[in-house]
Structures
1.
Amino acid sequence: MTCQELVELVTEYLEDTLAPSERVRFDAHLSTCLGCTAYIEQMRTTIRVLGKLSEESVSEAARRELLATFRTWKADVAKRDG
Amino acid sequence: MNLTSAASPTDELELVLALRAGDEDAFTDLVNRYQAQMVKIALAYVPSHAIAEEVVQEAWLGVLNGIGRFEQRSQLKTWIMRIVMNRAKRRGAQEARTIPISAIRDEGADRETSVEPDRFRGQSDQWPGHWLVAPAGWSGIPEDRLLSKETLAHVGKALEALPESQREVITLRDVLGYSSAEVCNVLAISETNQRVLLHRARSRVRAAVERYIQQ
């Protein structure tokens, strides 16, 4: 396996969906290749950074607007059913 | 199936019943759980945060109006996310009419390589297909630089530049932490298709981070 082939299989490697024989070739390459080891570490870091994008709280304005939406909806339902 | 971020079925049923009964606390609970996720999902389809928030507001009204008809066959979370997705797609299509088509189409995606071919040694080299210059290790980068506002803004831009099909998968998987089974379920795509899209998306974002960090 070359480095160029390995980079195309990284997601399958991380998802653990490589066929057993391919996994053996992948691991064998990785055990002797610092470049590919660094590449996979870069990929893991990228995934970790992506996970930080979600850390965002709901704005107060959005919350207020949503509660207003909810109360209007509830009043409409009550009117319709009542 | 790994459904880490989902509510348990009984918990979910209680929420649905409470919401039908007009319980404001149940609604607030749902907003706390899902609002931020919904905005992220909407952002995969529409061009700005402001529009994403509008879409999510509309989606909540859709949730309220539909909750009477919600059946327990699908998960509440999946059902809500599909509502957001459908609205965001529709809104995104409207917005797309005003931006150049080149920004939407992803030409040559089938021939796409994960890493630029010129980063590898050629056929005439002693080691064809091996790194010309090995990728740099990133473990020495301080956390506060790696997770700085500037880096996150660059990653956000890299996401925006992805084709929509890749952006929706990577948003669900890596930004929101859904399992691959959940992503396949919400988007109604196969495991293989999901993995191919995820791979392309991650490869592009990694390259963008590399360009930014090593500039």
2.
Amino acid sequence: MDKEVLNILRKIVGLKSVSLYDLAESYAREKRTQVTKVFDEVNRIVFQLASKTLVTLEVTEGIDGLETWVKSTPTGETYVKSPVPLGREA
Amino acid sequence: MSQEYRDKVVPYVIPGTSQEEVVDGITYQIRNTRQEETFRQFQSPNSPQSELCDVTSEDDILRLFFFIKPDFSIHPVEEFPLVLGFPLFLDFDEKFLGFVFDESVKKKIDGMKDKSEEVEKSLKEISSKMLWKFFTVAVSDRQVSSRLQRKRGHVKEQEVDDLVSGLMTRRKNQFDSLMADWVNVFSSLYYAQEYSLPIVQAYQSLDTAKETLDILSNSVIVMDLAEALRSSLSKLISRRICRMRIESICLECYLRKGVEPYTMIQKYPLEPTLDAICNKCGGKSIYHVIKMEAPYSLGPLFQENTLQEFIIGYTLAKSEVIKKLYVHKKVNVLAKEGPSSGVQINIFAITKNNRILLVDVTTSKNLNKVMKDVDAKIDALRGFPYDMLVFITPSVELKEYLDYHKVRVFGSRHLQKIVSHIGYLLDEYEKTSAQKPIPTQQPTLGEEPSQNLK
């Protein structure tokens, strides 16, 4: 798994459940850039993780209408907590 | 996409900034919402978002079609991971409807469902046995075990790949014979699933498929619905907005006549085929599932139901009476004592005659819920100056639009001619409303607008 994808998966697993928009904001802060520059990448990664059932996507009513929430799954948690996750540098 | 009408739509406001519109002395401040980043690609006329709204704003059937809530799933396909499943009938035999909900048919379906679940369970057991055998072979391989024993620390992905491909080459014959044992079991199980699963799935989605037919047949006037829908779907394919798979199965063949059902699976056709009448039994109840595979960037628009707002926004932008419109924004009024709290508005439109038209788009078909939403919106808009509030719902129950205080509620029957309907209402409003006084000063918060519909 790509390092950035694993980084985002770790973030989601740590939070258990996070709004897609908050996740993008937090990722942008970490990268010291604007949300606009990273949003598409975060969105792509989240869908990639969801396609592998490492996270699930749910929609809930937020302040400005429906909002996508990313939730960790037992598979995603196992993947992150595994003692030897593939792709982690020695 | 025609630039002229596109220029009227403001799909994206840079987060943290605002745009101001002064209409008859009142300053409206328009800001981004939480979902703003999902709208950024609308700025490019060639993005899938813009292309989709361009096609749907021109096509009466597609405009309605996207008000139907699809089954949403995600597949591990890089380019088109989103799969939106739209179940539908193109015709239906009412007598058959009574028949399919008969206890004997229900029992038959339950039996098929149980059998199908058993097959699924067997498949899982076989897969786990296969995996177990694979690991037995792998760990007994001397080269693999000695390599892993020597290794200290974490294992890199590339090292594992090399180890597995080496194992597969060395033990090819052993794996081939293992697979040969299971191929026959898999194919017999697959055969058992081939008929039963599509029928069980179709039976479970009968109501949704019937509802889709109700919406389409009651809301668009066409000679041949199947041909019209086929032609509309072809537009999406030819513009390369999405890929499409269509699965069709005749329920009457099996459930009424007891013969193997007529089925057709189309994978990524350029010109899809949609049969309304079964080629085998002549029955009308062919169940179709249209599976659209779309890029991930459309995901939040579909999930959060903002796509319908943009479809209506781009459709209204084609009206001559609309000067400018914003989609899914927070709007507040700048008053003497400071800005009012922002109201989230689906479509904030300014007309050529400087009227403020607000449009709220919902995918809910339940009129009771819609009316509760109308009340909540009216409450939220207290003190916010506007001329007309239009609600759009895909409900088929509304034969005529509802006239409710300053609000008009349109149903699916009005979606085909939505531009004409709203144009007519605005014309009538101009005729009936008194000369609109131009405020000499900024309004104070809580002040009711001077214009009324009645």
